[in-house]
Amino acid sequence: MVGKCSSAPPRVTLEDITKHFGPVVANDGVDFTLADAEIHALLGENGAGKTTLMNILYGLYRPDSGAIRVEGEIVQFDSPREAIAHGIGMVHQHFMLVPALTVLENVILGMRSKHEPLLDFGDFRRRVMDTARSYNLAVDVDARVSQLPVGVQQRVEILKALFRGARTLILDEPTAVLTPQEVDQFFDVLKGLREAGYSIVLITHKLHEVTALCDRVTVLRGGRVVGVERADNVTREQLARMMVGRDLPRSGERQEITPGAPVLEIEGIECLNARRLAALRGISLAVRRGEIVGIAGVDGNGQSELAEVIAGLRAPTAGQVRINGRDCTGATPRRCFDAGLGHIPQDRLGTGLVPELSVADNLVLQTHADSPFAQWGTLDRDAIAENAERQLEAFSIRAGSRDTATNTLSGGNQQKVILAREFSRHPDIMLAVQPTRGLDIAAAQFVHERLLAARAGNTGVLLISTELDEIMALSDRIAVIFEGRIVGVLDSATASRERVGLMMAGQDDDATARAAI
Amino acid sequence: MTDVPATMVTPSRVSQISRVVGQLAVAVVAALACGAVLILVAGANPVVGYVALFNGAFGSLNSIVEVLVKATPLLLAGLGIAIAFKSGYWNIGAEGQIFMGALAAVWVGLNAHGWPAYVAMPAIIGAGFLGGAVWGLIPGILRARIGASEIITTIMFNYIAFFVVNYFVTGPLVEADQFLPQTDPIAKSAELPRILRPTRLHAGIFIAMAATVALYWVMIRSTFGFRARVVGANEAAARYAGISVGWTWLVVSGVAGGLAGLAGMVEVAGVHQLLLEDISGGMGFTAIVVALLGWLHPVGVVIAAILFAALDVGADSMQRVIGVPVTLVYIIQALVVLFVLARSALEHDMFRRIWRRFRPE
Ligand SMILES: Nc1ncnc2c1ncn2[C@@H]1O[C@H](COP(=O)(O)OP(=O)(O)OP(=O)(O)O)[C@@H](O)[C@H]1O
Ligand SMILES: [Mg+2]
Asked: Which residues surround ligand 2, an ion (CB under 5 A)?
């Protein structure tokens, strides 16, 4: 399958690429080859330099040294435009689509029409639909992007790249935001592309994707290549060891804990979503101290709205929320925090962080006015700096320094900043939404341990995740959400994956579990 | 995951300031170079012209004082705009707030006859601040409570303020002679004292300096400034973190208005001793440019205010010496702005390419 032909040069070769950001060495003499018609996984810890390397190939960054060859020829890209002209397309994890435009408009944005200066929509439309059809990218070209689920938006991004003539696709953690069903469809698309001769770089933290889909894998650690392997030649354990540089410790044992008093009580919550449609239809739920309650469900069944209602970011139209016994229905986020809530939000760059501000500032986003970070309304920069050093250390956050702007951190390290901040506030109830999204395996395991430690420390945890594995591994009880309702609550000791999976799809009529917890 | 590339690591505070100053200096030099071409086209000698410009601004004690007198209101209003913009509150209304501050100040000043200075002066300063603050707060309330775009409301409020002042100086408050559209002089005790007679330097400069120090503390060191920065940078994150976005806007709209009001007040109590129909003369708009050129940083605003004041003051003497019209200086001022704005574009794309073409491999 690896279309390696001894005579023809590989599709893309990166030779001895080095890239510094100030004191940080993001790539350190990296060699990378991408053959024709192969899916090549790029693996590595958070901050290993994966995104940087691919941004260099895509013309967003210039390497300090090293060469890029496309089809054997040395090239130099000053902008993505030039990379696209050489058939290279990239889909970033934060999609770069214009939400207010339709799919068609997004795909052709910035392209020349046949009849400049007039836009020939008819012609574009035909060609876009042809492209979509030939690669099995099912999208409605007239739908508005803002109304599409993320999985479809991703297809639009791919369509956009293909329509611009990309023969090489770079996908940065494409599966992080997809549901398992969407992942399957997505893999079929990628396989089809491979068959049609496309080359694909897949950045991922999910090792099973490497073995299931990819031909070869390159592993980065600390900006250097630590290995290039055929995917059918390595086990996940080997890959994990290459990434982290040591064996992963077995995850910590779950202690038996008798749950205490309820810290989060939700009764009959109803609310509307952003489009003013019913998102939650009467959700009741309680989380007690020392237990982890997992909310399982396919993305878009009301999880985001539920989290927002609990965090005081969305007013419910009916029902009650109590945190630590205090009424927090429709309260301000401040009140919720004061009542003991910790919140790891779903959208880290949009909600959880202030990207322009330093890491140190982001670490005191809620507590900046409290002792020891401020006295008499004046910030104590030393205390804030000291706190930052402690958290960077405790969560092994890779940042140039504590004064680095947060948007220059790698995706996983940004997530760690939020985790560090929320855990360090020692909340009584931790609302964790997709807490390990974008984290490497070691970091994800670390977070799981922190959640278990919080549980052992008598904190209640409400874990909202679309990763069933994560829910199954951590939860004491699993509540399944479907179309804005809790369709069942299972004891995790007895719950089976199949059962939960069926309920997530809304296909479990066993009404006995329907009762509220 | 994804990481949309950002350009660079945040540098330390000191190097940040020096970078901003450096950029400004480059922009000024480039703008002067373009201006030189225009002067040549006009048939005059740019070197002579610029020497005259410089001497006009810094050549004598009197000219330096004039620069400071002009810079004082620009600085006051510019500081207010800086904190507003930093909080994502786009206050375009400094012009109107200057007018209302001046009106409130003159009203106190006209009624202060017989008051001792230690009453009259604080009263007129307070009135200036309050007049501007109230005028700034109304759009702030509209924004915070019903989401009305402050860009539009503050612009409208500029017009209203202008015509309100116009009404007062031609109607109820018109001077006793009823000759010019201006008021009678304010009480002597309410005037900001001259501090370097016979020059026009007045105590308003101390107010501006105090405001700079205060704003430095508020914006850089205070917890409120922290919240304001968060609100300005990412509203959603501010909400998430329990920061009241509306309250922040209310406060900055009032503070920004108050500072602009002080600018109007110093023109009344420090410069003219009365209220003229066109007392601001567009200072509220120049102050926006000053705030932006100063990178919304108090120290930067000081530098930009002095720069713009100096260009203004020097323009007259350049006109006198080489006979090019004062408007040329406005062109230079506009070019400074353009060059600062163009900087990022230049640094990133075009410049890099051109550099590449000429660089020996
Ligand atoms: N624009 C930038 N400015 C400064 N430092 C940067 C910038 N972009 C990346 N870095 C640094 O370079 C290193 C590599 O980052 P990169 O984003 O390539 O990591 P990654 O392998 O994609 O990690 P993740 O899995 O967390 O997304 C990190 O330490 C990061 O902080
Ligand atoms: Mg990355």
From this structure: A 51, 410-411; B 1
